[in-house]
Amino acid sequence: MPTNEQYNGLFLPTDSQFAGLLKIAGADSILKLVGKSHWTHPEIGSSDIHGMLNDGKKVSLLDCVLHGTSRHRFDENSQFESIFFPHYAVVGEEFISSGEPVIQAIRYHFKNVDSLVSGRETFQSLHPEIAEIHQILEIDHKREERIAEKYGWESRPFNPQIGEHPHILYFSGLWEIVSTSAEIGKVSLTNRSSHPGGSAAGIGIKNQVTANIEFTEPKTLDEATHALRTLHGLFELSLGNRQSFCWIELELTHRSKGTSHDRPQTAQLYWSLCNERVQGDPTTNLGDILLCPDRNPEEFATVAKGWMNSAESMGDPRVRFATAFFGSYSIDRIVGGANMFDLLPSSHVPKTKEVDTSMREAMAQCRKTFSDLPDSFARQSVLSTLGRIGKASLRDKINHRADKIIEVAGDKFPELYLPCSQAVLCRNHYVHGSAGSFDYQKHFTEFAFIVDTLEFVFAASDLLDLGWDMKRWMSQGVTMTHSFGVYMINYSQNISRLKQLIGK
């Protein structure tokens, strides 16, 4: 999403009694409407506002929040101003509304999407022999002659100018890099290339790798952006850092009126707050990326399909992971890191353990005793604890997920249970006030190590469930531009420091 202002001019609502000023500029976007009364706005919630821009395009401002009103007096007349913050602006041929399922595809480009793919086989620089370039030019000239003859155009003579060292810039014509069919629809990465006509200034080929979701059924804007955020989360994990949106395009169910070809309308989506959490745009080396779509397309397709299909069950823990993983090292981060394991669905944690008869009878007696007491925090705490007996503890859940990593790469992460256990003790210290194993503020390196362990175990085990080839990633060599590569390279030193600190 461009940070510069795409629109900053007059806005005429469909209600001609108002005129205004619209500024689309990310988090600074604003709409001011002026008329003989305040704009009618629902008392609760947000609203949609439709209008025309000064360049003649239609804009649907969705999920608008009223920020304030004012009244201006001019002699005996008054002008009323209403100020809104639009969460979304959709610019296209037709208006849309928040509740309308009219979006059949969403396509977007983000800052470092080019880092996901090498493109080495798709875009090349060739240096053919003189005879080879002559043959290529002759074949292309004959093709142009056939087209000219078909449409009655004037043909041009074949007069190639070839020097001693011809040079060709080459695009293979491969538009689709990789695709997979998820329950929500087709997910793909495609090339979107362009090139100007040749001139004395030269010639070149530009390309934007585009991520696409083509829905099986039309979606509302909220549903479409939710799917986009889900897919984007996989890309951010693979690259190891937040990624800023450059542009987002919607494909609508409406048919375009501006061309003789029957094709769907497209509209630009300006999402005001999509880049608020992004700080800088650090790049990741190709060898460090967890999933490389063009080098390992089958693996990427399998993981992406599983990621999208498990969005409902794994959505909350993955969002909690991203909130912690991309933040700064802090108490909130260790608490959030532990919390994502608490949010895991039952399919991802150990099964409930059966308790013996004597324990079950003791639990029933305690529950009856405390249930008869007056309601209090202490009573609820004891009843809650009784309800958790037999269920997997936080430590059980983390170790269960760590088992998956140990099975694949145990020699790379010896004694992985140790930092996992220390992370639980640290979390309990900050949440319940229990004793910590060491001074977490004083020994920051060891504190950061146990935080990293929680996040690595969570994300790596999640990807392993979906079909990630962790062994391949570890064997290809890393340059530590992804935090998981840093964790793997520094693990031996960090586990030694931790053991020495806690006296083991």
From TrEMBL:
Superkingdom: Bacteria
Domain Apea-like HEPN, residue spans: 357-470
ApeA N-terminal domain: residues covered: 7-272
Protein name as annotated: Uncharacterized protein
Organism: Pseudomonas jessenii
